[in-house]
Structure formats: C-alpha cells, structure tokens
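Exercise 7 asks you to align residues with tokens for two separate proteins.
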Amino acid sequence: MFRAGTRKATVKVRDISTLGARVSGVYLVHEGDRFFLTLPGLESIEARVAWVTEFEFGCEFMKPLNPVILENLMRRH
C-alpha cells in the first residue's frame, strides 16, 4: 500500500533492500515526492521517490530497514 497525503494506492513491490524498493502500479508520482509504504506485518515506512518510469518508481527509505526485519519479510513472502 502506498499513501501520499490522502491518496492511497495498492502497488507491487518488485525489489526491496534495506535502503529502498522498486515499486510498480498505476499512480502519479514525481521525483522527490514523499510517501508511506505499508508492507505486511510492518509499520508504515516513510520513503522518497528517487526515480520514475511509466509504470514503476524507485524509492529511498528515510530510515534504512533493519536487515533482520528485511530477512524475515523476505522469508514470509
């Protein structure tokens, strides 16, 4: 789930690391936009849009994910 202000959209996380993610879906975002990404079983993660293509964007997490949390998330999904 992607949330910027009052807009919400369901998206797919294609790649994820401790520092950011590649996200796909249909939405209108711009480089520099800030938003919250909600992943299953985790609190919302604040992120910034780093790059945008037609149906994907890359984001940088404002605080890196703990590697143990990322490993557990990857194991579950």
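Second protein for Exercise 7:
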Amino acid sequence: MRESLGDRAFNAVNMLVLVVVSVVTLFPLYYVFVVSFTEPGEFADKNGFVLLPGRWSVSAYEYLLSTSAFIKATGVSAFLATVGTLCSLIITSAFSFGLSRKRLHGRKTMLFMVMFTILFNPGIIPLYLLVRDLGLINSIWSLIVPVLTSGWYVILMKSFFDSIPAELEEAAMIDGCNELSIFVRIILPLSAASLAAFGLFYAVAYWNTFFSAVLYINDFTKVPLQIVLRNMLIDSDTAVGGASAVEMASDKQLPTQTIKMAAVVVSTLPILAVYPFLQKHFTKGVMLGSVKG
C-alpha cells in the first residue's frame, strides 16, 4: 500500500522527535561515561567539558577501587541486592501461593489486610519506631526486614499462581507430595518468568536503597553505595571514608569530577549488566500475573 505525502511527513516528524528525545536522554549517560575515562590532565585543560577524550584513562576507577569506604559500601549494596532479593522472593512467592489456595482458612481476611497495606501507608515515624523496637537500628537487616515484601507484588504473583491448573496439584498429591513439595518442585519451576521479573524489581530497589539507610544507619561502615555516592556528588568537600573529595583528588592528582563520574558509572553498571539477561522474562512474567487474575 503506497504511503501518501501526509503519511511520509508524519513519519518523518515522528522520527525526528524520537531522535531528539533519544539524544537528550542518552547524552547525560554518554557524558558521565566519557568524563569518567578522561585523562585528568586533559579534563583540566578543557575546563571540564569533554565530548570525546583524546587520552583515555582508568585512574579514577583505580582510585575508587582502592578506597576502603567505596569498597565497603559496594559490598553492602551487593549484600542487599542478593540476600535481600532472595529473601523477598521466598516470602512473596510463599505468601502468594498460600493466598492462591482457596481452602486456606482466613484467606479473605489476609487478602483484605494485603490490600489495606497497598492503600494505606503507616508513615515514617511509626515505621522507625517499629524498627527501633525490633533492635534493628544501625543494622544492615533494617534495610531488608521492613521491605521484605510488597502488597502489590503479592497480589500480582497470587494472580499468576491462580492461572496454574489445579489438576497439576491434584496429580502431585496423588503421587504423595505434600504442600511444600508441590510448591518447590512444581509451582516454582513453572513460575520462572514471574520470579525473574519480580526479582529484578526487588534487586533494583535494594541496590538503590537510600532513604531507609539515612533513617536507620548511623555507622558509616554500614551504609550502602547510594549514600556514599550522594556524599560525593552533593558537595566536593563532603567527607568520604575520612577524607574529603578534594583531598582524595589531590592525593592522586585527579579532578574531583572524574571521581564522581566514575562512581556513578560503577553504581549503575551492575543493574545494566543484569537487565539484558532478565529482559526476556520481564514482560511475560508481569503480564501473566496481571492479566489472568
């Protein structure tokens, strides 16, 4: 079918708008990446604006990876993203599976309580008091336990479990499986797409933990990476690991800006590296849980 002049003009305008939006969106990421690899002397000579470095350097990354505060914060964020995600998936999937069984006593009451948590938030002060009374202040677990699951994710995963034929469970019970065996051997393998999608949600949330760390963590050796990154970006005189960013730069003859950009790249790289492997499960897992409910 031949396109009219108006259709071609419309497609051209759409393409132009998409190109402009793409450039505006990707340029900050490109600039951060380029500056982080720019040779310190060249960055200083060009007054801090580099589109394409003539001399590439990894000195900013070498310094970051030799800084104990940054390494410890990266380890804390990695612990949150791995252990926290695993715990959240276990709690969410087990709770959702239980709610999907119609023979569960008190099922409607628990569903009402889950929906209530979606509509009403307890607030910062009650949550802080709860964490304090649990003895979790200044503990890494204070960044995991209060956010172990989400009512919205529980509802979506429950809807996914509802779509699994009940005949599979009945056949497994005839073969002698109990509820735990059915959940581990049958339900979870069938839920790989859903688990991958929600696992990505949880991993990103744990990796980007910031506000809860500000509330509950007082020991700088236990803060996640986002706190250290915020301290480095908000003020060049902010202390990081006992030394200011200016002092860090002067010790290694590095511009402060290159260290900041390298820290941004390091903090975003893990999620960017994991996402392509889970992308194929992302849409499938979420849609199965939301459409077939």
